[in-house]
Amino acid sequence: MRLTFVLLAFLGVAWFESLWAASTHGIKLSWSESTPNTSFIIYRGPSGHEVAYTTTGIGVKTYNDTNGVAGTTYCYVVVAVLNGIDSGDSNQVCAVFPSVPANPSGLSAARF
């Protein structure tokens, strides 16, 4: 399987060890939490902290973004939430939403 893109970043913020994105059908985000029992807010936009895009449950440390426009670059940051208090931003990652391959054409069948 060929990955359309792989982005790794290890800048880290107090609550995070890393945030990365890699996929062929969408953008998969994954991060490590430094403090247990936290939930997370995922921000998405051209520069990463544009719009609170979605939230996760407690302890969920991955998100598959399947709602994007092919060829569009999306940037993400994640913020941890513990007891109603937000952390600072994680490192930012940006990835291009993958394109769906064109449908095959010219299929034929013949006796042999």
CATH class: Mainly Beta
Number of strands: 9
Question: Which class do the helix and strand fractions yield?
Answer: mainly beta
Kindly identify the CATH topology.
Immunoglobulin-like
Specify the overall morphology: elongated
Number of domains as seen in the coordinates: 1
Task: Provide the gyration radius in Å.
Answer: 18 Å
Strand content of the residues, in percent?
over 45%
Q: Which ranges are low-confidence, i.e. pLDDT below 50, for 5 or more consecutive residues?
A: 1-17
**CATH architecture level-2 label:** Sandwich
Determine the fraction of residues in helical runs and give it as a percent range.
under 10%
Note down, in words, how this protein is organized.
By secondary structure, the chain is mostly beta strands. It has a single domain, classed as Sandwich (Immunoglobulin-like). The chain is 0% helix and 47% strand. It is built from no helices and nine strands. Strands 4, 5, 7, 8 and 9 form a five-stranded antiparallel sheet that branches. A four-stranded antiparallel sheet has the order 1-2-3-6, with no helix packed on it. A hairpin with an 8-residue loop joins strand 1 (5-7) and strand 2.
Characteristics of this structure?
mainly beta; Immunoglobulin-like; 112 residues
Helix and strand topology:
Elements: E1 5-7, E2 16-23, E3 27-33, E4 39-45, E5 51-55, E6 62-65, E7 73-82, E8 85-89, E9 93-96
Antiparallel strand pairs: 1-2, 2-3, 3-6, 4-5, 4-7, 7-8, 7-9
